[in-house]
Amino acid sequence: MAMLRFGQHIIKSSALFLKTELSFALVNRKPVVPGRILFRFTVMTGHVHVHVLPRKAPALKKNDSIFDEKHDWESEDVPTKWRSEEEMAKEATELRSLFS
């Protein structure tokens, strides 16, 4: 797999776990919850991307508070809080085996 662009970000192939003709899926460098992944689909008007945020009780008192958590977490997007490339590659490898 080659490197891809996701918005202004360059995504290394080690972070990808699925790639098709019109889509790709990657692990997140700073997941708000464990297992957060992103899917990007190419459509006629550009692209759509989907965030998948697995949730398990009792992680959050209110199920919908995940949206507040996500906003707060992403507003502090600094490299010192990102996961290492090795951590991301390990997760992508595990997920890749589920999609092959």
TrEMBL record:
Q: Which residues form a coiled coil?
A: none
The Gene Ontology biological process terms listed for this entry are: diadenosine triphosphate catabolic process; intrinsic apoptotic signaling pathway by p53 class mediator; negative regulation of proteasomal ubiquitin-dependent protein catabolic process; purine nucleotide metabolic process
Which species is this record about?
A: Cyprinus carpio (Common carp)
Tree of life domain: Eukaryota
Q: Which InterPro entries match?
A: Dinucleoside_ppp_hydrolase, HIT-like_sf
Q: Which Gene3D superfamilies match?
A: HIT-like (3.30.428.10)
Gene Ontology terms, MF aspect: bis(5'-adenosyl)-triphosphatase activity; ubiquitin protein ligase binding
Gene Ontology CC annotations of this record? cytoplasm; nucleus; plasma membrane
| Protein's recorded name | HIT domain-containing protein
Q: Which SUPFAM superfamilies match?
A: HIT-like
